[in-house]
């Protein structure tokens, strides 16, 4: 069930599903079954978190099963995201609980842990032939007010979820962006062994000395 579109080419071999995970804007109108959705979000629960707190929560709406809630969530997205996200089968908001459940102290790692859970469920989705597209282009205050989100939760991210469709489903310039080859920084630019590189060198080899 691999997604063959715009597979990532890296300098080192990694798990194939990681190269196939991408952020499409074109989706098929195929509904996602409850079983598949549960499997995807169950994968998110497997992610690591500070003292096992699992501070992540997801507010989701299926276009097929909760059309009113879907429309309400869609309206919280910025207009440039609504253009394509309205075709996605599922819309999701990711939230992080600011405090620890056991003592109410601030959880400074909550957003980090939400990111881990969302990355994990996105990989599971790709393994099952679906894709997630995460977005920052939404209005958190509208989500909080429209869905009565408690004050103890940060509204961090939005994402679509569904079966990816062909780029031809999109208008330009989104169509071209869908097919633009993806790239990533080489390992040498993000991994520094033993020391931070100096502004003069910015060199991986230098950082190893």
TrEMBL record:
Every Nitroreductase domain range: 19-163
SUPFAM superfamilies reported in the protein's UniProt record: FMN-dependent nitroreductase-like (SSF55469)
Record's keyword annotation contains Oxidoreductase: yes
InterPro entries according to UniProt: Nitroreductase (IPR029479), Nitroreductase-like (IPR000415)
Keyword presence, Glycosyltransferase: no
Keywords: Oxidoreductase
Superkingdom of source: Bacteria
Record family assignment: Belongs to the nitroreductase family.
UniProt cross-references to PANTHER family, sorted A to Z: NAD(P)H NITROREDUCTASE YDGI-RELATED (PTHR43673), NADH DEHYDROGENASE_NAD(P)H NITROREDUCTASE XCC3605-RELATED (PTHR43673:SF10)
Protein name as it appears in the record: Nitroreductase family protein
Organism: Hymenobacter aranciens
